[in-house]
Amino acid sequence: MSEVSVRPAVPDDGPEIARVHVQSWHEAYTGRVPDSLLTRLDRTSSSRRWAARLRGEVPPGGQPGGQTWVAVRGRSVVGFASAGPCRDPDRSTADEELWALYILQAEYGTGTGKALMDAALDDRPATLWVLADNPRAQAFYAKHGFEPDGATRDDARWGATLHEVRLARG
Questions:
Q1: pLDDT per 10-residue tile (average), the chain, 170 residues
Q2: How many CB atoms lie within 10 A of CB 74?
Q3: In terms of pTM, does the model score above 0.90?
């Protein structure tokens, strides 16, 4: 297996990020989120949103700012991470928030997730939201210093309510 490299994402990465986003959601969330949510995922519209975001535009329903990194193995994007200032009003905007970290299932346990998290956050204080019913992700983040801070939310942005817990470090 070739080495993974992590670099800042560019607009041309939009289609590959969309592919990883959709595939990783199916791999990680089948049985954890409603099937109706998974079947609504669309690589074409996701690709357009990612390309716009990477050009510095704010896609409809998106947030401004932040940075995105991709993990590349060989010639293929195998994961991505996005981070920016914490959006939660009860937290400091000096804290980072890991907005997304997704890798393909074949990358689990290879160090790709850690490499992306390191690029996105370094060792800065940070928060993230994770599905309450996702012990694998929670264990990954715990291994890297994150723990529940007591905040929970029901996120209905995706057409189905997802129960999430906030993790924080630093």
A1: 92 94 93 84 87 83 81 96 94 92 96 97 95 94 96 84 93
A2: 10
A3: yes
